[in-house]
Every structure is written in C-alpha cells, then in structure tokens.
UniProtKB/TrEMBL annotation:
<dbReference type="Pfam" id="PF00282">
    <property type="entry name" value="Pyridoxal_deC"/>
</dbReference>
<dbReference type="GO" id="GO:0005737">
    <property type="term" value="C:cytoplasm"/>
</dbReference>
<keyword id="KW-0456">Lyase</keyword>
<dbReference type="GO" id="GO:0016831">
    <property type="term" value="F:carboxy-lyase activity"/>
</dbReference>
<dbReference type="GO" id="GO:0030170">
    <property type="term" value="F:pyridoxal phosphate binding"/>
</dbReference>
<feature type="modified residue" description="N6-(pyridoxal phosphate)lysine">
    <location>
        <position position="319"/>
    </location>
</feature>
<keyword id="KW-0663">Pyridoxal phosphate</keyword>
<dbReference type="InterPro" id="IPR015422">
    <property type="entry name" value="PyrdxlP-dep_Trfase_small"/>
</dbReference>
<keyword id="KW-0808">Transferase</keyword>
<dbReference type="GO" id="GO:0019752">
    <property type="term" value="P:carboxylic acid metabolic process"/>
</dbReference>
<dbReference type="InterPro" id="IPR015424">
    <property type="entry name" value="PyrdxlP-dep_Trfase"/>
</dbReference>
<comment type="similarity">
    <text>Belongs to the group II decarboxylase family.</text>
</comment>
<keyword id="KW-0210">Decarboxylase</keyword>
<dbReference type="InterPro" id="IPR015421">
    <property type="entry name" value="PyrdxlP-dep_Trfase_major"/>
</dbReference>
<protein>
    <submittedName>
        <fullName>PLP-dependent transferase</fullName>
    </submittedName>
</protein>
<dbReference type="InterPro" id="IPR002129">
    <property type="entry name" value="PyrdxlP-dep_de-COase"/>
</dbReference>
<dbReference type="InterPro" id="IPR010977">
    <property type="entry name" value="Aromatic_deC"/>
</dbReference>
C-alpha cells in the first residue's frame, strides 16, 4: 500500500469505525457465531498474489466483525469492562506508525520517557506515595500488558529477593563453589517458597506460581467478611507453613476480586506481616484500583497501607480506566528489585546511556525485550479527559450500578443481591420466597443463567460461584456509553427471563 492509498483507506476505516460506534446500540452484544465459523469463509492459505485493499476492508466488515463480541456495547455487563476511547485508538494508530520495540532508552527516547512521565501522572492521580514515582530515588513503574504478566514479573523479583535473603541468612546450607551446588541450592530453596492468596484471588496467582514452579496456597475466606482476607487467617497459614519448614515469600492481596469485588483487609495484613518482614506484598487491583482516583474511595482501597507497606501495586487501566487494551501499570517501591532479577545485558544491547546509568532501560524491568508504545494512549486519554473526566467516568459507573441495585430492590422479580455490591459490580441470584434448599437454588440459578445466555442477545452478563452461596450472576457497569436507559433495559430483560424461568419451573 502506498502513502496515498493509505490516506484514502485510513479515512474510510475511520468512517467505518464511526458507523460501527453509531450502530452499536442495535447490535447483539455477543458474537452470534459457532466455533469454526471463520474457516468456512477464509481460504486455507495466504493469497499468492496481493489483493486489493477494498476487498480486504470489505471482508473485515463482512467476515470478521460478526465474530466480535462488542465489549464497548452499552449493555455489556460481563466480566469487567475493557474501556477504549477514540483518543486511545488514535494513539495506537500513531504508535503503530512508528512501530518500534522501545527496549532501551536510546532506541526511542520518547517511548521510555513518556512512559515514566505518564506513570508518575497516574501515581499522583491515584494518591500513591512518592516512593512509587520513578522520579523518587528508589521507586519505579512500568507498563506491562496484563495483570497476569505483572504477577509473574513481580513473583520473579520477589523470588530472587527472598533467595538472596536466605543465602545471606544461610538458612539453607550450601557450598557454592561448584555450579551443581548452586543449582542444587537454588532448587532446594525454591522448592520451599510459598506464594499466598485466597480462594478469591484471580487465577493470575496460581498461574504465576505454576509457571515458576512455586507453591501457591489459597487461604479460605468467608461470606461474613465479604470474602476479603482477614489477618487471623493469614497468620495461621504463614505459621503452619513455617512450621513445616516452608518459606512464605509473597502474598497477592486483592482490591476488588473478580467474583464479588472483595477487598482483602490490608490493615490487618500490615499488622500480621510485621512479623514476616521478608514477605513481599503485591496488591492486585486490576479492576478496582482505578477508584484510587476518587478521594472518597481511597480508604476503601486502604491507600494508607499501600503507601506505607506494600512492595508493589498494579491496576489495569485497560479495564475501567478508559485506556485502550492493553495497559497494566505496575508500581514498585524498589525498582532495583525488578532490575536485579531481570537484567541481562549482552554486548549488542549495551548503550552509552545504559553503561553510564544516565537513563532507564525498561527491558531490565520486564520479562520480554521489546515493548509496545503504550504510554501514548495513556497520555492522549488523560490529556483529553483530564483527571476530572476520569473521575466523572468512574462516578458514573458507580451511580449506574446503584441504579441497578435500586431496580433489584423493586422486586419485580425475586432477585436477591448475595453480597454487598462493591465498586460497579453487583452479584445476585434468583431466590423465590420459600425456596431454601441450596441444591434447588443452585439448579434454578444455573437454569436462569442458561436462559439469560440463550434468550437475549441484547445484554451480556457473566456467572460465578461464591463460597457458602453457590452459583450466582455478576452484573458490572463501566462502559463509557452506558446510560440509565441501558441499565433499565437490562433490568427489564433480566426480570422477564427470571419470571419465565420461575413459570417454567412450576
Ligand atoms: N486480577 C483481577 C482482580 C481481575 O479481575 C483480572 C481479570 O479480570 C485479572 C487480575 C487478570 O487480568 P489480565 O487479563 O490483565 O491478566
């Protein structure tokens, strides 16, 4: 494609995107296709000869778009939102136009510098302590692609830190004169390391431990504690494992769990971990962390403990934080913990600035070498919305969520909120008067869920299972285009289906 063809194709693509957004409301939220649908309409091999752009662009509209679930739809209430903005789309277009892997400062200084600046902006917007700013002496931050990558990256840093501590304390005896001895020592010490979370921690914890060959312990949490980790339960688990000769090395505490928006009690965790100074505390606030931008939500997020105590904190700006997928900032109290664990510098990666330590090379704080120019979309979005617009977006989601809760309270159908709503998430189930048997309720709600999926393509919700409660349904608000009328429409559909399921059950 030459420049002039690109100019025309680009204008046409923007037109198509605008039309897509204008018609979004009338589209089914979920892709209406069956597995394997695309193979039927796409050749088995790449074309031998290049094709006309118009044909390719038409195929995107006719073949690909029907297989896309519309996460930007105002009636998308599933999982957690995955916000995007036109500002973010334009940023990604520009980032693609200068496509480069930004691993060292010198390979594109703006890529590194804008990332560090926008991360200090967001740290300030969230009220994080200066300890986490890159401009601080020790702290730092980096944008990774996902909370999962964050968990693995942090776990590598925490593992290396605890191994260094164990070596210093000589907790595991070694003769480090031979390579085999070092490997044996590492293997032996690593096999004792335990990562902690709760039964409600996102699977990123289990996965990080699995990838790194570490143990993960999921501590039980209870409904009476709103499914948040309590200090006593943590202390008991740490003590039990220490008595077995294991070494607690990392805790993933969550602010805003996926199933119910639960918050682990960071105040109690802080107290307990005074006795475990080597335990790395990582806060996963993938969904709810953006609420730190709201002064009225900061105590719910235990900002004071985050600022005083935790080693690392991360939120996904690409969920409820307006920034186009993907964008997971990670803030660490000691950036050297990352770089000590992740720096490998062969000759071909050396630079004048790196050697002189006059610039940060972000490859040393992440798993991969190359990295996307993600900060541009943070910069465009925050400048265009302003911090005020960012706060307005979040408050709008919280208010619409309250509207949904008020609608449930009208009891047009016997829906029950099963755990106090948090952030913009409500977890509910169908609970007709007189039905007390948990098995019966479970069966009924599974049927309700099946019907919600099959009877209406106008809304999309997701299901979960909560301890002590069982099968229930999650309703999340957070798409920027959602309005009160969409919440009312969703409630109408939910009620109609609930009443039909009850009628069929009689
Ligand atoms: N943590 C929480 C609390 C989440 O809700 C999610 C995803 O919904 C994740 C982590 C995983 O996020 P990612 O897809 O960025 O790995």
């Amino acid at each position: 494609m030459d420049v002039e063809t690109f100019r025309k194709a680009g204008y046409a693509a923007i037109d198509a995107i605008c039309d897509y957004y204008k018609s979004m409301d009338s589209l089914p939220v979920m892709a209406q296709v069956e597995p394997g649908f695309l193979r039927k309409s796409i050749p088995e091999e790449a074309p031998e000869k290049g094709e006309e752009w118009n044909v390719i662009a038409k195929d995107y509209q006719e073949k690909i778009l029907p297989g896309i679930t519309h996460w930007q739809h105002p009636n998308f209430h599933a999982y957690f939102p995955s916000n995007t903005t036109f500002e973010g789309m334009l940023a990604d277009l520009h980032a693609s136009s200068v496509s480069n892997p930004g691993f060292n400062w010198s390979v594109s200084p703006s890529v590194t510098e804008l990332e560090l600046i926008t991360l200090d902006w967001t740290a300030k917007m969230f009220g994080l302590s200066q300890d986490f700013y890159t401009t601080s002496e020790r702290g730092g931050s980096i944008i990774l692609n996902s909370a999962s990558e964050v968990a693995i990256t942090v776990a590598v840093a925490a593992r290396e830190k605890i191994l260094a501590t164990m070596e210093n304390k000589n907790e595991v005896s070694i003769k480090q004169t031979q390579i085999e001895d070092v490997a044996y020592w590492r293997g032996n010490a690593t096999s004792k390391l335990v990562m902690y979370g709760t039964t409600q921690t996102h699977s990123i914890g289990v996965k990080a431990a699995m990838v790194l060959g570490l143990q993960f312990r999921a501590i039980e949490v209870e409904g009476k504690d709103r499914f948040g980790l309590r200090g006593d339960a943590l202390r008991k688990a740490l003590k039990e494992d220490q008595e077995k000769g294991l070494v607690p090395f990392m805790l993933i505490a969550t602010i805003g769990t996926t199933s119910s928006g639960a918050v682990d009690r960071l105040d109690e965790i802080e107290e307990v971990t005074k006795d475990y100074p080597d335990l790395w505390i990582h806060v996963d606030a993938a969904y709810a962390g953006v609420c730190l931008a709201l002064p009225e939500m900061r105590s719910t997020c235990y900002l004071d403990v985050i600022n005083r105590k935790v080693d690392s904190f991360s939120t996904n700006l690409h969920k409820w934080g307006l920034v186009t997928f993907d964008c997971s900032p990670l803030y660490v109290r000691q950036r050297a913990d990352l770089s000590n664990a992740l720096t490998v510098t062969p000759q071909y990666l050396r630079t004048k600035q790196g050697d002189a330590n006059s610039a940060l090379d972000l490859r040393n704080m992440q798993l991969s070498l190359g990295r996307r120019f993600r900060s541009l979309k943070v910069w465009f979005t925050l400048r265009s919305y302003g911090q005020e617009g960012f706060r307005r977006h979040l408050r709008n989601g919280i208010e619409l969520s309250q509207t949904f809760n008020e609608l449930i309270a009208t009891q047009r159908a016997p829906l029950k909120i099963v755990t106090p709503p948090q952030w913009s998430l409500t977890v509910f189930r169908l609970e007709p008067a007189g039905m007390k048997d948990e098995k019966e309720l479970d069966t009924l709600n599974r049927r309700f869920w099946d019907e919600l999926q099959t009877r209406s393509d106008a809304i999309l919700l997701t299901q979960t299972i909560l301890p002590e409660i069982g099968f229930c349904i999650r309703f999340v608000v957070g798409t920027p285009s959602s309005k009160e009328s969409h919440i009312e429409k969703a409630y109408d559909i939910i009620c109609q289906i609930a009443l039909k399921v009850l009628q069929d059950a009689q």
